[in-house]
Amino acid sequence: MQMKQVKDYKQAFHECLKRMGLRSTVQRDVIVDEFFAQDRHLTPEELYRILRRKHRRIGFSTVYRTLKLLTGCSLVREVGTSNGTTLFEASFNHPHHDHLICDCCGKLIEFLDQEIESIQERVALKHQFHMTGHRLIIQGICRECIKKGKS
Amino acid sequence: MQMKQVKDYKQAFHECLKRMGLRSTVQRDVIVDEFFAQDRHLTPEELYRILRRKHRRIGFSTVYRTLKLLTGCSLVREVGTSNGTTLFEASFNHPHHDHLICDCCGKLIEFLDQEIESIQERVALKHQFHMTGHRLIIQGICRECIKKGKS
DNA sequence: GTTAATGCAAAACTTTTGCAAATTG
DNA sequence: CAATTTGCAAAAGTTTTGCATTAAC
Fold first, then answer.
1. Partner-chain contact B142 A128, CB within 8 Å
2. Which of A63, B14, B31, B106 has the smallest number of CB atoms closer than 10 Å to its CB?
3. If chain B, 151 residues long, is cut into consecutive pieces of 10 residues, what is the mean pLDDT of each piece?
4. Between residues 5 and 34 of chain B, which touch chain A (CB distance below 8 Å)?
5. With contact defined as beta carbons under 8 Å apart, do B85 and B42 qualify?
6. Which stretches within chain B are classed as H helix?
7. What span, in angstroms and rounded, lies between the C-alpha atoms of A41 and A47?
8. Distance, CA of A84 to C1' of C11, in Å
9. Does residue A65 lie within 7 Å of nucleic acid chain D, judged by its CB?
10. What DSSP state is assigned to residue B110?
11. A42 in contact with B at a CB cutoff of 8 Å?
12. pTM of the prediction?
């Protein structure tokens, strides 16, 4: 099962590169592998630090450039910004969802509410908008932080 | 009517400053006035450029510091980020709402859907989250851009 | 062998901060 | 007059870019 999944995102990436007339490189493979292995929200900086531990010769710019590529291939999406840096998450085999974010500890919880989804389409329709996507973030304090009385 | 409104946000600002033990200054007044006169979404840089045209002696840092203050006083809120810079909008006498944003021309349309609002509270409750706010942005192509075929 | 991609360092951004001078209450 | 706020310049961040070198097709 694990292998199937691994094969899939990589295959999709290589196909996308080929379609765009771009080349597959060692660095691009290493980056996409590490990103999908982590299986969580990452900033470019976190990803870079993880990569450096395992593969000495990787540049920050390559990480940025590859994340942009992956976004273009719809394998990765920008979730939002946290403390001025962009947060990315895998979107391949990871269907759309929204987020609860804890103002206190920064924890991110994913959720999907079908009603919200369909109301959004209705709103877009009403304004004669061709909806291409959306982003919903609910801010608040999570259960653990409430318990700890951290406000 | 116009005068009433003008008096209100300024009064609220001064009261908030006093409450926090902070001082009213010429610069803070100029900035809040200009922000509310514009009555639209602004980046710190746009606001600064507008201010500079009218009042030569204003520093960029003061604009940033005052925007932060105004946010703390709930007179202004952060709407999101556009091209790496923060977008602010007036929130005094400007109740909560969400946004449709055109990927093509950048136009921002405000909307409010009560159903979405209440479902969000339900979602927060389900995850035992104490919701303090939320942000919903629907991306897409607006009617005008569709017509112009700008895709 | 062409052409594209990399790593590095430097640049370009936005936002924050330290500090002497000015302004406020 | 004591304490806060300002403007400036410099720092601190993140992200992008220019360019010689390396790697892919």
1. yes
2. B106
3. 64 95 96 94 96 90 98 92 90 90 83 94 94 90 80 47
4. none
5. no
6. 2-19, 26-38, 44-54, 60-72, 114-126, 143-147
7. 10
8. 19
9. yes
10. E
11. no
12. 0.83
